[in-house]
Amino acid sequence: MADRAEYTTALKDEEAWVKERFNLAKERIGEIAKGEELAAPFSDFFIKEAKWISFVLEDLETEAHIRDSRTFEAWRERNQRIYEDTAGENYAHSYGNPAYAAEKLGAYGKAFSFLYAELYGLPCYAAEESYWDMTLLMELFLEVYSSFSDDELPSVTTIEKILISYAEDYCQEIVERQVRCAVDPDLDFAQKLIMESDLKDLSYLFRFGEYISSSEMETAEYLNTLSQEEIDAVAETFTQGFYRGFIQGRKDIRKKKTVNLRYRLGFERVMRSAVLKFRKMGLSPVIYRHALHAVVRSAYGRGGYGGGEASRQFEYDHRQDSALFLTADFVQKKLRAIQTSYEKYKDLAKVHAGPAVVEAFGAKPFHPAACEEALHWSEEQTKLHSRMMNETAQITSRYIPSEERSFTIIAFPLPEIDERYPEIFREVMKINTLDNDRYTRIQQTIIDTLDSCEWVEVKGRGDNETDLIVHLHTLTDPKKQTNFENCVADVNIPLGEVFTSPMLAGTGGILHVRDVYLNGLKFIDLKLIFDCGQVIDYTCGNFEKEEDNRRYIEDNILFHHPKIAMGEFAIGTNTTAYMMAKKYQIEDRLPILIAEKLGPHFAVGDTCYSREEDHAVYNPDGKEIIARDNEISEMRLDDPALAYFGCHTDITLSYDELGSLSVIDDEGETIPIIENGRYVLPGTEELNEPFDCK
Q1: Which of 513, 562, 501 is nearest to 534 (CA)?
Q2: How does pLDDT run across 533-566, given as a tens digit for each residue?
Q3: Measuring CA to CA, which residue among 305, 266, 261, 256 is closest to residue 285?
Q4: 55-80: string of b/e by CB count within 10 Å (b at 16+)?
Q5: Which one, of 593, 546, 556, 94, lies nearest residue 316 by Cα?
Q6: Global pTM value
Q7: SS (H, E, C) 281-331
Q8: CA distance from start to end of the chain
């Protein structure tokens, strides 16, 4: 701890020195904002951005008592002004739009759109008064600006080199700060806002610096109508699920001191209650923001906490901005930075218990437009990124061992899901607190039947083309072993599934779903062809051009692996959630956390027990779940780089598309579990009851 105190003191000294650079940069940008002319068409970009930066930084000079007296409407107006350039129809004419940047700036467009996206994090850094991050971005802006001060225009290559040098030169510092944010409870900007704000005055939302849409405001407003007992009940389900994850996994939570809370702004009342409950467990919450710098920003969605998105297309267009600097040398540099950063904070990492996540769902399904002008990884960069993600996971697992940590995840709707939002929210609360014992009993009946054979057949209904054979592991001691985990409400809330990691050899066929919502994106008529347990062909109906459909799948399901395995086969049993979705017609709005409970599902990527294969797992009946490996994950013993994909995407075949799910014995005889979307296995009939409720 003494080292941490010394580091914190050093950091404060550094911030004081950085403030000098910050003030110089701020003054220079203020001069540019007054209208310094450059050769067309670049002047427009620099003046607009300089004015925006100056406006974002104004609050740093505003005295605290003035900010505190600002009305809600004044806060809201300021937030809208900060993010208006990318919001709604404005995005079509924003330099953040790579297509618009290319139209206005030609070959320079990609570089300038990258710069715009990097500067986009300034409001959040200003809210935290993180002068290092602000200065870094401001000096980058000025360096690019200064390159245009000569009579001769700089080349596109010159501008790109400036941006690449920025990523390379500051890689170590950016990564180190991100690693520390994930494990150090002393970095408590968000926690203080959650615990100390008057949550009835929704002005507090704007103090995070994030874009605040009507969704975040209406969520917070609705939660303020719930009693404290109701809020505590939500937090209790959430936090106890995390605790049960340790108990069920036979892991010692007493060794841990911190837990990471991830959520979407608007749920602060729930988070405040959760913080208090985790503290009673002896866990100090770590609440960090989603990554903003391109060096650490994820291509596959946000982690940490965050607000709304002024433009989901903007987020989508910039998901592969690292293409500008992603080389083999950079990958090595970043991996070294991750390694040295975890080594520096190894004491904090060792006592980290894992993430506790509140997902928000209900936004209108997003259909991204293809943008050729955006930065995209090359085939070689795709491989580099995959390797980097794999090795990053290995480094993280060495310092935060998977077999010693847990997680929990729960989901609640957003107001835009439907005008009956309060009603739907309460329905989801009920789903998240269904009877564990009842489902444990019913699911055990299903598991006993599945364990009696090694083959499962799944077929679609009507025009659904699903026709799959799944090969299960051989049980050498059926009295003590099982293939399937009996999953109720612990780490994965709501309850309602039995799952396994299937054998790849012998697993094959076609998986077809008409509509599915994966990783925040809508897929239409998705088809995956499996052979030897791996996807060998694929298509969907999102775009007119087949090449765009395939690229969409490669970007967001396969994550650019030439082949990817079926890492999980499961049967979702939460028919109550299924009928709730039907009742409100929100099937396309559900997160995978709930959607995977609405019927059989198949995950592509890593197994259910990725990086925990050697940690024994048991069901409530005492049987060990032996299906923790497949033929690919077993390669970890020789070369971990070959054993993991670094992703796990669940794809659900809902009951209304399901024709049959049966086990097949050695003689070819079938025992049906589900037929025409109804449970027919004796002992599971109770699961059909919600189907009959009107």
Answers
A1: 562
A2: 999 999 999 999 999 999 999 989 998 888 899 9
A3: 261
A4: ebbebeeeeeeeeeebeeeebbebbe
A5: 556
A6: 0.87
A7: CCCEEECCECCCCCCCCCCCCCCCEECCCCCHHHHHHCCCHHHHCCCHHHH
A8: 59
